[in-house]
Fold this sequence. Notes:
Blueprint: E1 7-12, H1 15-26, E2 30-35, E3 40-42, E4 47-49, H2 52-59, E5 64-65, H3 73-81, E6 86-90, H4 97-100, E7 106-111, H5 123-129, E8 134-141, E9 151-158, H6 165-189, H7 215-218, H8 226-235, E10 242-248, E11 253-265, E12 275-277, E13 283-286, E14 290-299, E15 305-306, H9 307-313, E16 320-322
Parallel strand pairs: 1-2, 1-6, 2-5, 6-7
Antiparallel strand pairs: 3-4, 7-8, 8-9, 10-11, 10-16, 11-14, 12-13, 13-14, 14-15
Amino acid sequence: MDSKSMRIVFFGTPEFASVQLENLIKNDFNIVGVVTASDKKAGRGKTLSSSAVKKVAEHFTIPLLQPESLRDETFIAGLKNLGADLFIVIAFRMLPEVVWKLPPIGTFNLHASLLPQYRGAAPINRVIMNGETETGLTTFFINNKIDHGNIILQKKLKIGPEENSGELHDRMIEESKDLVIQTIEKIASGEINLIDQNDFISLDAKLHEAPKIFKNDCKIDWSNSGVIIYNHIRGLSPYPGATATFFSSTGKEIELKIYQARFEPDISSDGSLTLLTDNKSFLKVALKDGFIFLEMIQQAGKKVLGVKIFLQGYNFEGFWQAKP
């Protein structure tokens, strides 16, 4: 089958998916339908907000489905009527079997890790939080277990020592374009060597998971080493942001989101978690193995600021510490 004549339905919601959809359309792939999330109320005015994928579909006048339930009979009938050969799923929720089994060729997913490592909802955050130096992208056929299907193609990527999750996310968007197209072309040609994920798993190998990030995951554990704390901060930057609470000897307290930091090893540090500052140019926390310098921070309800500008409007009088 010619890859450009293959009838494709695309499933996705955020920018990570919308860029891939637009790239496929501009490369003349036959996208016959798009499935995305329902419009959501957002902002203080609670106005309805469309997904990034919906905006692309509407721009190119592609038939659009926004089901509340993926098991809805009307939705499934609508999918069948599109007569798709292949479904592509990128940054979307789990599909029930009644959906992913519809197309005769199958349904493939793009995942932002080197499967079977970092299965789950937050692989980009988790690889950086865990201090990994390498990650990648995987396309695989969906089955009835999340992120467990047979691998089609993979692409390895190095992680920069100062790269945060937002930067890696944006780089992966670009790196994904060719991989998705190559996957379609491989499937269309029939020249495909599927790899069982179990082939990558040995008895002594540790499999890292990538569960969704919750509020408690964002809190900095100051008892950790400086490198672990530094990785935690960049793994959560710019979203949702690492959080820390500082309190003074006079009873004052402030909670900050930390988006950028720097770790400076120093064996003379006493590990007291004291917040040190000249109230002009720096904020740093004394750890057991050095100092974490806070560089880009945000107080609740305020803008994200560089530390020098932040200190122009906030004075840390007296003795302050990080809350463990």
